[in-house]
Amino acid sequence: MNKRDVISGIFWMGFGAVFAIGGLQQGLVRQGIPGPGSLPFIVGLICVGLSLVVFIQAFRQRPLSFKNFFAHESSLPKLILALVSISGYGFLLKPLGFVLTTFIFLLFSLRLIGREKWVTAFVFSLLVAVLSYVLFTSLQVELPKGILGI
Amino acid sequence: MDALTNLLLSFQIAINPMNLFLCLCGCLVGTFVGVLPGLGPAASMSLLLPLTFALNPVQAIILLSGIYYGAMYGGSTTSILVNIPGEAASVVTCLDGYQMAKKGRAGPALGIAAIGSFVAGTFSVILLMILAPPISRIALKFGPPEFVSLSFLGLTLVTYLASGSMIKALIMAAVGLLLGFMGVDIVTGVERFTLGISVFLDGVGLVPLVMGLFGISEVLLNLEQTFKKADILQGKIHNIWPNRKDLKDSAGAITRGSIMGFFLGVIPGGGALLGSFISYAVEKKISKEPHTFGQGNIRGVAGPESANNAGAGGAFVPLLTLGIPCNVLMAILMGGLMIHGVEPGPRLIIEHPDVFYGVVGSMYLGNAMLLVINLPLIGIWVKLLKLRYSLLFPLILFFCLIGAYTTGNTVYDIYVMMLFGVVGYLMKKFEYEPAPLVLALVLAPIMERAFRQSLIISDGSPLIFITRPISAVFAVAAIAILLSPIILKLIRKERLQLKE
Q1: Domain that holds residue A83
Q2: What pLDDT sits at residue B1?
Q3: Domain extents in chain B
Q4: Residue B2, exposed/middle/buried by CB under 10 A (0-12, 13-18, 19+)?
Q5: What pLDDT score does A118 carry?
Q6: Is B130 near chain A, with CB under 8 Å?
Q7: Does the interface ipTM go beyond 0.85?
């Protein structure tokens, strides 16, 4: 049994079902012409049907479990750190401003995820933050200013 | 006479200093991302999309298409020198290119790749210019039902040519359509599936989605691996120009690659990738010494490299004449044009001749520029390969973050991008392909409008898709493709039973 296909099949079935039901609520027909829910309903149903095929086929396939899902044991913490740094950037960008947020983001990813030396990480982050600020302002890209005013 | 006027028009547009500059920028960025493993053309084109808001549509498409064919060139460099394809269409170039490099013939391998790309690129632009106007004249007769069936056929072809399971590719196309339906309904103004979040009123943004699926997810997948230095060929590369024997050996392969590449590139889902694979297979088949393939046969570099560049040109045909994007990169171009208020389709050449001829003209010049960028500057590109990944990935993430933010000046797009980064990562692990999803997402609003218009024309009868002859041809072809795997299976079973 291919466990990965079982899971993904169920997931897309749910995904399609949400749109099919949503489409039904939006109205399939309005004043005799197809309404806003018509295509989401049809495509949602198709999605459910196709996912059902993946789900059923999964039981006859070569066994594939979630063992070795990550390439290394150390993968998961690294992935989580990367997602933390990305969402952190979104969270801090408005209050702290472009330059400071970029600097902190780069320092964090270089040091904690990339395992670069402190000095390298610090210099590299500072350089990229300043240079990109100069580049973007010269291209007239609007960036959030935050507490430092830059 | 007409063709000559058009050619002059295209050069006139391309030679404008600003356009020349943008074309050069596009080619440089394209080569850059083509060389860099880990940041592909899809992510970088969507990255630069917000920057094009300040430009006019002609300038925007010149810049973006420069990245597209620049990446096709650049991808071959890493394949030959490091055995890592910079982008998917250069995968087969690794086979013989890297072997040539190992035997000390990296120079001629790079040289023939650039020459083949140049010849094929130029050939495909000429064909594009000749073929596109008559095709759009035919397509002008299409009504909404024809467009629905044609888009349906396009999506089916893409899923059929997907490398993995066809059913999974079809699911991805359905998911893309569903995501494309999110936002305010164009016909009635009703909000659909917005989850009450204002950012979704315009639907799921193409830029954050593509950068998530192709940029962020790639970084996540690479981070899993332990960092190791790429095994770059040491020593200087000398003698870039292939000798007379090399050129004579490759001439046939370049010609065949150009022709096959172009026509396979026109097929939705074919793009540059299919052409390069088939060209390699053909060269090996017709060769008198097939055993030398995989051991550094120059034809194994010349053919596929020509094919992928010709395919890159071919892919413009359905986009600029029918409004059907063949691959993810064309989908991004289409999204970019639509942001500028230019809808690719049969009316494009009539309504926006400057856009069409601007692309054509800048492609002629871009191909020449790329020859200059690639051959003498090869040393710089090789140095770039030595940048270690622990320094590279924060930069890629940072570019994506800024790209996502600047699309709408909102941090929500950063979260949307991150979400699709995780989705893309999981899709890889669960063996789903992202390409059909992106294509469907871009086509969804146009398909939906045409679908509902068709049903209004027919008073609600879905038979309109099969009673109009052109639409019927498309629909029947699409259904035949969908059913072909099942039919083939049945035929095989029958034969087995007959044998027994």
Answers
A1: 75-138
A2: 45
A3: 2-499
A4: exposed
A5: 93
A6: no
A7: yes
